[in-house]
Amino acid sequence: MSPIRGGLRDLVLYFLKLGTIGFGGPIALVGYMERDLVEERGWIAPEDFKLSLALAQLSPGPLAAQTAIGLGYVRGGVLGATLIGLAFVLPSFLMVLAIGAAYVQFGGLRWMQALFYGIGAAVIGIIVRSAYKLTKSTVGAKRLLWLIYAAMALVTVATRREMATLFILSGVVALLVYVPPRALMGRMHAALPWIGLFAPQGASPVPGDTLWRVFLFFAKAGAFVFGSGLTVVPFLYGGVVQEYHWLTESQFLDAIAVAMITPGPVVITVGFIGYLVAGVAGATLASLGVFLPVYLCVILLFPWFKKYGSNPQLKAFVDGVTAAAVGAMTGAVLVLAKGAINDVPTALIAAAALFALVRFKTPEPLLVGAAWLAGLVLYKG
Predict the structure, then answer these.
(1) pLDDT at 194
(2) Which region, left, alpha or beta, applies to residue 227 given φ > 0 means left and ψ of -120 to 50 means alpha?
(3) Residue 110 reports pLDDT greater than 70
(4) Which residues sit opposite 226 in a β-bridge?
(5) pLDDT (tens digit, 9 = 90+) per residue, 337-348?
(6) Residue pair 175/191 in contact by the 8 Å Cβ criterion
(7) DSSP letter string over 251-314?
(8) Using CA atoms in the order 276, 280, 121, 135, what is the torsion angle rounded to 10 degrees?
């Protein structure tokens, strides 16, 4: 039975605060939620928190944002999910708008160039660490998942982009291998509706004006973010840089850096990208697009998740998709590093960031702050 303490208003204010000062990435943000809402305040029952987290892990969407929206649904249904989602995302969205405006206005100034010179290199170290942790926690000891992981990493490096259809294919392969054929034939009718929810909505965004294409592309991207906002990096790179040429490689690295220096969900970097493409309207539509699949997954799947959450076909499918996503992210590290690490100082900054993360568990905001200072000293542009 859910606790009665802490109404919806209290929960909205909590997530507004967490979205404003919550640094550390998705794992840290989810840890704050459990500590504050379950253990200390008793606003959310342990079983409701576990259910929200399980749905977030099995569904597309950034882990922290989807867990937060799930908790909002627990407390206030569709209204609660809507208010909590807005409260959690809004602070970081406003921050990336401000940074985007400064980037466009002052991008030619030395201090702004130095900022991204140092931070861009540090981001590579952060992504390397994140890729390692995600690989360790998601791929496990299953040989097939390692094969999927390695194949997606190689495809991403070779093509400098990744294909959404390969995610679906990876999930189907894992489903066919890990579910006995007899059980599969007997339960396929139950598995197919779930699989359909993970499928991309069409192929490439349909032709039309820029704003429409921005919304469609980021909505598609949101449907393939499994577990951590950083896993969307290769998908965004393939579309934003390679396919549509909205941003240069340097600008794309800067966008990832912006996500690191702002609190809240990492995937809010799409707001910065959208701003560079089409101003405030582009930022708004990009953010709305990437979070829409997250929101819909919660309000559509939550009521039935208790019944179907242990479905073996669903779990096998998501295992395959997750291994593919993490493999693509690992491959993207090499692609992005080529643009960010182009001299000895940037190589040293990236190595120092990785060392600080592994050896001292230094918070990401401190790392990017130190990288900015290093950039100011070392940048010679």
Answers:
(1) 39
(2) left
(3) no
(4) 61
(5) 877 788 899 999
(6) yes
(7) HHHHHHHHHHHSSS-GGGHHHHHHHHHHHHHHHHHHHHHHHHHHHHHHHHHHHHHHHHTT-HHH
(8) -110
Residue 331 and residue 152 in contact, taking contact as beta carbons nearer than 8 Å? yes
Contact 66, 56 (CB under 8 A): yes
Domain boundaries, the chain: 99-378
Convert the pLDDT of each residue in 296-331 to its tens digit: 988 888 887 767 666 787 778 777 877 887 787 788
Nearest residue to 336 via CA among 259, 268, 250, 267: 250
Handedness of CA 32, 59, 69, 86 (dihedral sign): positive
Both tokens of 247, joined, read 């941003």
Distances (CA, A) of 234 to 100, 165, 190, 270, 333: 21, 14, 31, 13, 9
Model pLDDT for residues 10-38, shown as the tens digit of each residue:
999 999 999 988 765 676 688 788 888 98
Q: With left for phi above 0 and alpha for psi between -120 and 50, is residue 361 left, alpha or beta?
A: left
Structure confidence at residue 116 as a pLDDT band (50, 70, 90): confident
User: What are the DSSP calls for 47-77, one per residue?
Assistant: HHHHHHHHHHHHSSEEHHHHHHHHHHHHHHH
Looking up tokens 């599969």 gives 184
Task: Enter the pTM of the model.
Answer: 0.66
